[in-house]
Predict the 3D structure of the following.
Amino acid sequence: MKIYIVVLLLAIFCYTDTTSTATAAHSPQPIVADTTAYYKPVKGQRRYVTGSYQGDIHLNGTGITYSGKRARIGYLAADLTYHPVGTKFRVFIDGKSFGIWTVEDKGGAIKNRHRFDFFVGESDAGRIAAESWGRGSDKTIVMYKI
């Protein structure tokens, strides 16, 4: 059930290229990604992951990316050693295209070329999507640098 919530939210907010498949011509080295998701907490939302607004700000940030942009769906956090700000990826979840995502952020736990954190929204809807995402181990996420 949780994966369906995440996929539904991503389908609503992301450009989906239904003509592409995971086997289409892309960069020669696909990345099978180890992923998590993060969101922007908002004061007054119904619930917080950590139990408080300040705790969730500490965990997820303020909604401003490392590049200085306002976080939005379609932005990724990555290890900037391997994927600098502005790097674009075509993302496939369980073989279905979820469009192009761009590295705009970094995170303390993002420490190799296969590790990414997807921004999935704000307030309670973003929290629900991030919690539903989990560690991403119940889905296969393949990314192609473009």
Observations:
- The CA atoms of residues 40 and 62 lie 6 Å apart.
- The radius of gyration is 15 Å.
